[in-house]
Structures are given as structure tokens and as C-alpha cells.
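Protocol step 6 of 9: fold each sequence in the batch and record its C-alpha cells directly after the sequence line. For illustration, a two-sequence batch is reproduced in full.

Sequence one:
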Amino acid sequence: MTPSNVQQTLVVLKPDTVQRRLIGRIVDRFERKGFKITALKFVQLSQDQAERMYAVHEGKEFYERLMRFVLSGPVVAMVLAGPDAVEVVRGMMGPTDSGQAQPGTVRGDFGMGQPMNLVHGSDSADSAANEIAVFFEPGEIVEYTLDTDAWTHGG
């Protein structure tokens, strides 16, 4: 039995995470929290993917700088599944401005500024569905059960 609040969300570890060799440390935080990785990919974003990811920011003063940054090196894209995944993951990441992020959050512990703030996470279930489609085909997302799901997901 799966609780009704289980969601999928997209997390992208940005080029600064890759360059600073923090991939494992950040992924570990999500796994230790109890999230299940259902898809994972190391990829160099294309211009099209970056534009689709950040379409909501087009026209904003930081958009061009953000685009240059996310295209500057490879990223890690992953789909996480778990209870209230969108909200919980965003809380774990901390505010977009790393300078305002609390210790204990990804950005509070590792962030150096903007747009180099290490991670992107979907901001709603609808955004998650759209953003996941930027990186993954439906067959690339693997549904499976962990023996610990009953403990971490209340099922």
C-alpha cells in the first residue's frame, strides 16, 4: 500500500556541484531522508533543455546569466519519490539565495551564491511533471519497492 502523499520531484545538481565534487554528499542527504531515486542521469544540458527548464524565468534580469551557468558544464538530473517530495526536497535545499540559507540545508552548508546555488528542485507537482519530461522518457523512470518503504513512507 502506497500513501497518497507520495510524489515525484526533479532535482538537478548544477555544474558547481559537479565541479566541486559534491554529487555524492548531496545525493546522500536525499537518500538518508528516505527518498527513493527512481531515475538518475549525468548529462550536459542542451540549449533546448535549459530553455525548457527555465522558461518561467525568461525575460527576467538574471535569465541570461542563469542560462550561461547551467550550460557551462555537466549536471546530474534525478527523480526522487517520497511523501510530499516537492515540499520536503525544497526545504532540504534551502532558499535560492545561499547567503540566506540556514545551516543544515544543502545551500546553507555548501552554497556560495547565485546562480551558483548547487541545486534545482521542482516548485510544484505540475512543474515536477514538466521538468522530469525535460530529462527522462517514461521508460527511464523505474518504479520499485524497498523493504524499508513501510518505515520511511508509512505504508
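Sequence two, same batch, same settings:
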Amino acid sequence: MQRTLAIIKPDAVQRRLIGKIINRFEEKGLEIIGLKKTVISEDLAKKNYSVHEGKDFFEKLIKFMTSGPVVILVLRGKNAIEVTRRLMGSTSGHEADPGTIRGDYAICGRFNLIHGSDSVESAEREISLFFDDTSIVESEKSDLKWIDGMSDDLTGENLV
């Protein structure tokens, strides 16, 4: 199973969209194995977004991400990174497809509600910035055979 990080940004928290966003992930079949509400420090925000350092929007992004509480999730599931990014939609809300988080709740690019890891390497790095091993709780879920298509019957025998 793949893991990824998602951050429900300050604009979504202020608009009381936390439950609606989390619900999208759970309904899709992703498991929440890490969860916390916090205010990100400037230092931590700069580490998380270091790939954008030097770009014209970097300082504004850091100011935005440290402006209020966020909810940080570690999600687990089959193709979790791709699934999460598809659920999020295009970066700019006005370009995001209806049915995606940004397509349904965002209209601009700057306040786009949610961050998600874009690769396995990014996910591992970002998860380690916000969570230690004791903060992530994985457990076997009985519904996975109904969600991920890995089982051909109720015995749990894998097809792959």
C-alpha cells in the first residue's frame, strides 16, 4: 500500500471544509493513518516547500501556509498519491474539474484549499517532516478487499 501526505490549508480550515474534504478521501477508500491539526511554523513551511524556493510566489506561499491552522493527513491506499491528486483537482480552482475538491470549492490558484504530495519521494520526505513513526497508526481493514480489487473472494486470497 502506498502512503501520501495531504494538508488541508488555512483557507479550507477557515471555511469549515475539513469534514467535507476528509470525507472525499474516506469515501474513495483511502485510509487515514495520521491526522493532526496544527499551525505550521515558518521554518517547517520553508522545508516542506523548499522545491519552490526562489520562485516569485514562494514568500506568499509561506505566509499563507503559516497564517492559521491546517489539518495534516497521512493517507494510505492503492495508488494513494495519484488518487489523492485526482481528488484534489488542478491547482487553480477555476481550471479544476467539477467533482474534485478544488473544482467544487475553490476559484483561484492562490487559495486552493489543499496540498498533496506529488511523488513517492516527496510523500516520504513530507510525511517525515510532519509525523514521527509513533504518530502513524496502520491497521488491517476488512473492507479493503471490497475497495482495492486485490481479492477474488472473501477468503482474502490475492489475485496479484
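Proceed to step 7 once all outputs are recorded. Observation for sequence two: Helices lie at 10-14, 18-28, 42-48, 58-65, 80-88, 101-105, 120-130, 144-147.
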